[in-house]
Design goal:
- The chain is mainly alpha-helical.
- The chain has one domain (34-133, 165-250).
- The protein is built from nine helices and five strands.
- The strands form two sheets. It has a three-stranded mixed β-sheet with strand order 3-5-4. It has a two-stranded antiparallel sheet with strand order 1-2.
- Helix 1 (2-17) packs antiparallel against helix 6 and helix 3 crosses helix 5.
- The longest helix is centred in the C-terminal third of the chain and has 41 residues, at 160-200.
- It is globular and about 45 Å long.
- Mean pLDDT is 83; it is low at 5-9 and 161-178.
Length: 256
């Protein structure tokens, strides 16, 4: 009973003190760290990435990323962010990511799939949306609560073996039942916001659907975990949701 009460108090305190709203979607989210702390963590991580990874010197790719990135960044309205867009030289990495505060990285392996400015806008729009929605801070906050609840349960158990069992079960339950579903929710939310940002920037949001069709074909045959054990929605789910959100995104679209 004691650990249940303590766990309930931790969850309630987190909800009462850390409830924020995501721009545009209005979804309530848990934020236990300030945006300033989150941005500082993002800047530190960005410096480490640039030291660890090989930065591309290809002038065409860098100019393309900066050109598209600048338009997407302007569409967000967050002029207070210190936006920076970099290309990392790794043709095997078909990926991109954004860090809190506006630090965005695209690997060279993404360009054959993105193909053109509109496809790249879909990639960057999605990653920028993670930063705007503060998904990084939300993940940290959820992890803090999950670890706090697990610690409370483990400390309440007098038998060490039972404590280890409880800790393991709660850790697995938190991952599969809370953290992974929220990760997939954040990915879908970033898809939706990314469509709007690329449309506001003057890129046809239909390019996002076409991008994910190409990604799905590229992923065909590769081993993937079932959706409920994945951090991302399945490709078919993603494409279907993007098609559902396209009418909303098109209402923001004005070609340049």
């Amino acid at each position: 009973m004691r650990f249940r009460l303590l766990a309930a108090m931790l969850v309630l305190a987190a909800i009462l003190t850390g409830c924020k709203s995501v721009p545009i979607t209005g979804r309530s989210q848990l934020q236990l760290i300030s945006e300033g702390q989150e941005i500082s963590m993002g800047f530190s991580a960005f410096q480490k990435v640039l030291k660890k990874e090989k930065v591309s010197n290809d002038p065409r790719l860098n100019e393309m990323v900066r050109r598209v990135g600048a338009r997407i960044a302007m569409a967000t309205g967050r002029t207070d962010y210190r936006w920076e867009f970099r290309v990392l030289d790794n043709d095997k990495m078909v990926n991109a990511f954004a860090l809190p505060g506006g630090k965005v990285v695209v690997y060279t392996g993404m360009f054959p799939v993105a193909r053109d400015d509109a496809g790249l806008a879909a990639v960057i729009g999605h990653e920028v949306a993670h930063a705007i929605a503060r998904h990084g801070g939300e993940r940290v906050s959820q992890q803090m609560v999950a670890e706090g609840v697990t610690a409370a349960v483990v400390m309440s158990a007098k038998d060490p073996n039972r404590a280890n069992l409880y800790g393991g079960l709660l850790g697995l339950g938190a991952t599969v039942g809370v953290l992974l579903p929220y990760s997939r929710l954040q990915e879908s939310e970033a898809d939706r916001l990314g469509l709007i940002f690329m449309a506001k920037a003057g890129y046809d949001p239909t390019a996002a659907r076409d991008l994910w069709i190409r990604m799905s074909r590229a992923n065909r045959g590769s081993a993937k975990p079932p959706q409920f054990l994945s951090t991302h929605p399945a490709d078919d789910t993603r494409i279907r949701r993007i098609e559902h959100w396209l009418p909303e995104a098109r209402s923001y679209y004005s070609p340049r």
